[in-house]
């Protein structure tokens, strides 16, 4: 069932239809002929892969974790976070394994098409593209919050959202992930630096900004008793924080050597989990119920402005990666199998830039229409993140290994079947419950007037 593996070609070996003047570098099962005449889509090293994978996760997700700990309580919050980390790491591992066996797979929808046919491909294709676009929208919303914080609400929030969308449009137009990985390095350093500044600040200050005057002691709770909708929304925020799995297929597709994917995944998930647990515990411990979401606003106005100023490049890169991958998804659907995919022709550039423009416009509309950070994160994590990370991972293992049970139903095989089926069932239940909780949260926030409305000018920081 696997597609044709990427193979190195000599410059004199030119397949049918390729121009003789081109210096052929590679023939790839996804991108076709890769030559010096066009962008090199297979030039991503294992370290760049690790950084891109970290950046797809360490961004908006980490900013919501302290508030999610408050909802659940410290102990249940840490347990749920680590559980999600283990589940998502296995899901990411299955991406690497499946890609090596089926080299013509580019996105999660391609994998689903192999397993479930055209209907499954269509459903996951829509889910995959929506997930990436919503992630891009969440990034644009986060940028508008940062710009409001840094400028002390210098202008209408709707203007900041539009400015963020324009900058992301320019950055997302970069064609290959090996070049975007350079931005990811800078973005990762910036977002981690800003979060660490807030983490240190809440530890040395007397109180968080929102705490009342007078003597104050942190009211953090080891165990909390949230409502069903609040609890499931908090867990959905954890899922969003680890929902890098849909990004991993496009990333591994641009690796020079996909066999190094597991090494990159191990580095990524280790750094991400240590970061999430440490920052979540420290910030919530010192802020208690007065923790902000996003977390950068928890340590007072001055620290908030400094932290948001430093985090801005990271927030731009977060949105850039999502919109770039969504654009490339559509671009490949239009151009795959044509000579324009790997050549710098007029058609190539018109279609590429049109895809980027349309994706950014849709992300802008979403960011403006759902301007509530925590609820938007919960909605994306529950409805789209779960669908991309839980059910496909279980299906991928069953697709590649079910036939082995006819030969020998070993204990290991039976255990993996149970795990895969559990991923499908739990993922479906989490998707339904989490989506319900996120929608209720959005409605309640707008009804109580605790959030700015769509296309509003109010300060959202």
TrEMBL record:
Its annotated compartments are: Membrane
Membrane-spanning residues where? 75-98, 119-146, 152-171, 183-204, 231-252, 264-286, 306-326, 346-366, 372-393, 413-439
* Domain Amino acid transporter transmembrane: from-to ranges: 43-439
Membrane-related topology note: Multi-pass membrane protein
Q: Chief location of this protein?
A: membrane
What's the family? Belongs to the amino acid/polyamine transporter 2 family.
Can you name a GO cellular component term?
A: membrane
An example of a Pfam family matching this protein is: Aa_trans
What InterPro entries has UniProt attached to this entry?
A: AA_transpt_TM
Under PANTHER family, the record lists: AMINO ACID TRANSPORTER (PTHR22950), AMINO ACID TRANSPORTER (EUROFUNG) (PTHR22950:SF683)
**Name of the protein:** Amino acid transporter transmembrane domain-containing protein
Q: Which GO terms describe its molecular function?
A: L-amino acid transmembrane transporter activity
Alphabetically ordered keywords of this record: Membrane, Transmembrane, Transmembrane helix
Which domain of life, per UniProt? Eukaryota
């Amino acid at each position: 069932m696997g597609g044709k593996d990427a193979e190195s070609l000599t410059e004199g070996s030119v397949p049918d239809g390729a121009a003789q003047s081109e210096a052929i570098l590679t023939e790839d099962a996804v991108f076709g002929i890769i030559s010096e005449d066009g962008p090199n889509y297979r030039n991503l090293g294992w370290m760049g892969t690790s950084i891109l994978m970290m950046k797809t996760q360490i961004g908006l997700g980490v900013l919501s974790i302290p508030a999610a700990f408050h909802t659940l309580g410290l102990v249940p919050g840490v347990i749920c976070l680590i559980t999600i980390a283990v589940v998502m790491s296995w899901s990411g591992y299955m991406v690497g394994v499946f890609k090596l066996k089926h080299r013509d797979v580019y996105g999660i929808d391609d994998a689903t098409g192999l397993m479930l046919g055209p209907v499954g491909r269509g459903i996951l294709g829509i889910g995959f593209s929506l997930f990436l676009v919503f992630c891009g929208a969440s990034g644009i919303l986060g940028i508008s919050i940062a710009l409001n914080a840094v400028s002390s609400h210098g202008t209408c929030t709707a203007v900041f959202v539009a400015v963020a969308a324009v900058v992301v449009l320019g950055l997302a137009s970069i064609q290959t992930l090996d070049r975007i990985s350079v931005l990811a390095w800078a973005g990762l350093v910036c977002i981690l630096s800003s979060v660490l500044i807030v983490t240190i600040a809440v530890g040395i200050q007397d109180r968080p900004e929102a705490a009342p005057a007078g003597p104050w002691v942190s009211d953090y709770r080891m165990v909390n008793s949230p409502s069903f909708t609040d609890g499931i929304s908090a867990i959905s925020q954890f899922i969003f924080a680890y929902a890098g799995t849909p990004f991993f297929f496009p990333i591994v597709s641009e690796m020079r050597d996909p066999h190094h994917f597991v090494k990159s995944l191990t580095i990524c998930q280790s750094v991400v989990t240590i970061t999430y647990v440490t920052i979540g515990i420290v910030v919530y411990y010192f802020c208690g119920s007065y923790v902000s979401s996003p977390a950068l606003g928890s340590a007072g106005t001055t620290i908030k402005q400094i932290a948001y100023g430093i985090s801005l490049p990271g927030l731009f890169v977060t949105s850039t990666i999502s919109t770039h991958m969504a654009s490339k998804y559509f671009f490949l659907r239009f151009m795959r199998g044509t000579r324009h995919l790997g050549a710098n022709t007029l058609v190539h550039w018109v279609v590429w830039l049109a895809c980027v423009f349309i994706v950014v416009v849709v992300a802008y509309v979403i960011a403006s229409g759902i301007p509530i950070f925590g609820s938007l994160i919960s909605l994306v994590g529950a409805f789209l993140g779960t669908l991309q990370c839980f059910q496909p991972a279980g299906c991928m293992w069953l697709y590649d290994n079910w036939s082995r049970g006819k030969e020998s139903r070993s204990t290991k095989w039976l255990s993996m079947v149970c795990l895969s089926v559990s991923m499908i069932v739990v993922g479906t239940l989490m998707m339904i419950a989490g989506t319900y909780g996120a929608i209720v949260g959005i409605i309640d926030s707008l009804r109580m007037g605790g959030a700015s409305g769509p296309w509003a000018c109010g300060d959202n920081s």
